TrEMBL record:
It holds the Pfam family NnrS. This is NnrS family protein. InterPro entries: NnrS. The chain crosses the membrane at residues 38-64, 76-96, 131-148, 160-185, 228-252, 258-276, 288-308, 328-346, 358-376, 388-407. The keyword Transmembrane applies. Keywords: Membrane, Transmembrane, Transmembrane helix.
Amino acid sequence: MSNKKEQTQTLHATNHYLYYPDEKDVPTYLAYGFRPAFLLLAPYLVISMLLWGLIWSGIINIPFMDNILIWHVYEMLFGILTAGILAFLTTGLPELFPGMVPLIGKKLKYVVFLWLAGRISFWFIDITGVYIAAFFNLAMLGWLIWFAKDAVLDKLQRHASLGYAMVALFILEAWFFASMAGFAQTDAMDILKTALGGHVVLILLAMRRVNMEAVNELMEDKGIDDIYIARPPLTNLAIFTVITFTIVEFFYPYNSALGWLGLAAGAAILAITSDYNLKDKFILNQPYVIYLSLVFIMIAVGYAFMGWDILSNKGANINHFRHFITSGGYGLAYLMVMIIIGWIHTGRHLTSNIYTHLMVFFMLLASIMRGSIPFFEEYANELYLYSSIIWTLPFAIYIKLFFKFLLSPRADGIKG
């Protein structure tokens, strides 16, 4: 039985890689899109968040950065978005659309260099100027949209929503740089808050697909005879409430109606977790089901707290509570994608252990500490610093656990 299962899994993986390019001397770290993306993203997140914690708590100062807050928010949104999408699309689209050639080797290397150029240009935007940063960063997201064109142009429109969400984010990013360059009158931070809504929409769309792969892979490994289906109506309702909240916040940021929309968005996102309640089998005790459900729970908590704060305090602490979405749900979503792909797409079984437990625990702890600052204002500086340090620990553990997999050929001998 075990041999038959292994043969089936190998056949499925082989089907995914039938169109793997016949390129010679491809280093392992360029053998598939997720490898260089995660090798760079994990240390990048550690360095960026540690710097932010040290700067915001007043321990250090970086003289060439005039607007530290804009830098932090932009990099935590668009900076990691493009690396995450690079890994997600270049890994997933060749599986979803048979015949699509995987991106490897030199072509992949050039795209990675483009992402690095975007990061460097934005870090030094006060020295090199807005236009260079805008060129590299918009070029990166634009290339990703072009790479995803098969999904957008698919006649069945099975995954077109991912492409449409990326186009919307491209427009928002262009608007942001127009504001930074003085061509748009809208405040840059207001644009980034609006962009967060677009990021949440993209995460909800992507997590529906990640859940389908991860939970069904888990049940197959466990011998559970059932199928997990992420129901589109629940995700679509959550997306509708997030978009509505985002639009109303932009035009009427402290209107009481926004408070009720925040509570509605929280409830709609939380409802997605009901998909894990299968008809025949109980899977809510499985570690990865718990991990993945926490993504939705943290985002839901963030919107609910923001709604409550608007109704009770006229939004005095809304940006603190927004960190349940960003540090919590947003960060955990990226972490889960990195973990799941790190196991499955290096030819290994989806595994939970003390390391994966600790990664999720530290992410939750850091997010709760950061979001709880309004209740412990006398310890604000300490919470800023310690939460940023703890938030980096999951990615430090990821480096220890997964880098050896990312730098080695697939365990099952398949290319990629």
